[in-house]
Amino acid sequence: EGKIMESLSKSSRNVAKDVGCSQSAVSRIWTKYKQHGKVVKGKHTGRPWKTSKHQDRKLKAIRHEKRKFPTKQMRNKWAETGVNVYDQTVRNHLKRMGFTYRKKRTRLQFHSKKGRTQQDPHEQAFSDSGKKKTPSFL
Prior knowledge:
With about 140 residues, this protein is mostly helical. The chain has helices at about 1-5, 10-20, 25-35, 55-65, 70-80, 85-95, 120-125.
């Protein structure tokens, strides 16, 4: 933008060639300059960020401190600094920073550690031991 503003006397085509951008970009910057007296960037649309850059740096520090923390634990640690967000927000921020994240794996309720024994796994798997059961409708 600075180089473009210095060369107001040249044609937009020559300026675009010198700077290395399109002719339309040069003319757009010139018209903004003529209208406002300076090149003003427009407002950003969309939802604003929930966290500040300082809070994002805190999350980055937490991530470096405990690399293998699940996102829920990271969220709790981040909440101690005053940031109240969901797990998904933590995941989104980590992804944007270029990190990977861990989700805690949930075990099914009916799954128990007691399973087949090491001595005879076949007996546990097939407990009816060859007896045929007759259906109740016969």
